[in-house]
Design a protein that fits this description.
The protein is about 45% helix and about 10% strand. The protein is α/β, with parallel strands linked by helices. The strands form three sheets. Strands 2-3-6-1-7 form a five-stranded parallel sheet. It has a two-stranded antiparallel ribbon with strand order 4-5. It has a two-stranded parallel ribbon with strand order 8-9.
């Protein structure tokens, strides 16, 4: 399958790259590689597949691809495919004509058509039924769409860039028959892997400080951005099953608990219900033992 011609980069690229650094917080080698991948795929018109665990910021990556692309001034439309029933999802994506089903009182443009020359982002797209996957495959291959209920021999031409994301192992889904192999081939042209937070431990300090600043600004607070070595050890030791989303939620809760000002402490973290108590308490004990050893040596 021929790859579409590369599109020219948008004006003000240097400024947008700075914005990318601000939005995708982190300076580790893995984060730098992610940012480079985003810059590379942004200049292409091909479909982009973003994979990664829940909470790794796949929509943030999709928006970054859009903002660095030639269509950055056009719409960016996001659809959570896992949150809609099959019939509603098809109506949202492909549109429908009046009378096509109960409640369809007027013609409606689908997201593919409404995106125009912009970008449509299909999050959790592997949650689609096989029938909807088949319709999506045809849309991607033909670059046309037929609204639900349309009886005329007419297709609507499309020009939107398509970015899809999933936390599924698509090869496994193909092997068990829940995902179409031909659709896998079609979307897997350009791929970006969103790294798990446990693989970005060197960026945890910057991320925690970023979220403290965010909620200070949002709530009018003055929580200190200083992260003590003890607290940082807690954060780095945790496995982060919820990834960056979980880190943000924890910082938000702790900042709310502290009120208008304060400093995050080890006990604050240990009191959080989401954190791995045994893991963090083990580190706390180790820290105390090391302090006692140091004190006796003195």
């Amino acid at each position: 399958m021929p790859v579409k011609a590369l599109r020219s980069a948008p004006e003000g690229l240097d400024c947008q790259l700075k914005e990318l650094d601000a939005k995708l917080v982190g300076e580790s080698e893995l984060m730098q590689a992610l940012k480079k991948s985003i810059q590379t795929v942004a200049t292409s018109a091909e479909t982009v597949l973003i994979t990664g665990e829940s909470g790794t910021g796949k929509e943030l990556i999709a928006r970054a691809v859009h903002e660095l692309s030639a269509q950055h001034s056009k719409p960016f439309l996001a659809v959570n495919c896992g949150a809609l029933t099959e019939s509603l999802l098809e109506s949202e994506l492909f549109g429908h004509v009046r009378g096509s089903f109960t409640g369809a009182t007027a013609n409606k443009k689908g997201f593919f058509e409404a995106a125009g020359d912009g970008t449509i982002f299909l999050d959790e797209f592997a949650e689609m039924s096989l029938a909807t996957q088949s319709r999506l495959l045809r849309v991607l291959e033909e670059q046309t769409v037929r609204p639900v209920g349309l009886t005329e021999a007419r297709e609507i031409a499309l020009s939107a860039r398509v970015v899809v994301a999933t936390n599924h192992d698509l090869r496994h889904d193909v092997s068990i028959g829940t995902f179409r192999l031909d659709l896998h081939y079609r979307v897997n042209v350009l791929q970006i892997r969103a790294p798990a937070l446990r693989d970005l431990r060197d960026d945890i300090l910057r991320l925690a400080q970023h979220f403290i600043r965010k909620y200070n600004e949002k709530n009018g607070c003055q929580i200190s951005e200083h992260i003590t070595p003890e607290v940082l050890a807690h954060l780095k030791a945790y496995s982060w099953p919820g990834n960056v989303r979980e880190l943000e939620n924890i910082i938000n809760r702790l900042a709310t608990k502290l009120g208008e000002e304060g400093v995050l402490s080890g006990p604050d973290l240990l009191s959080d219900p989401e954190l791995n108590q045994r893991n963090l308490k083990s580190i706390l004990r180790t820290t105390l033992i090391n302090r006692l050893i140091s004190a006796s040596a003195d």
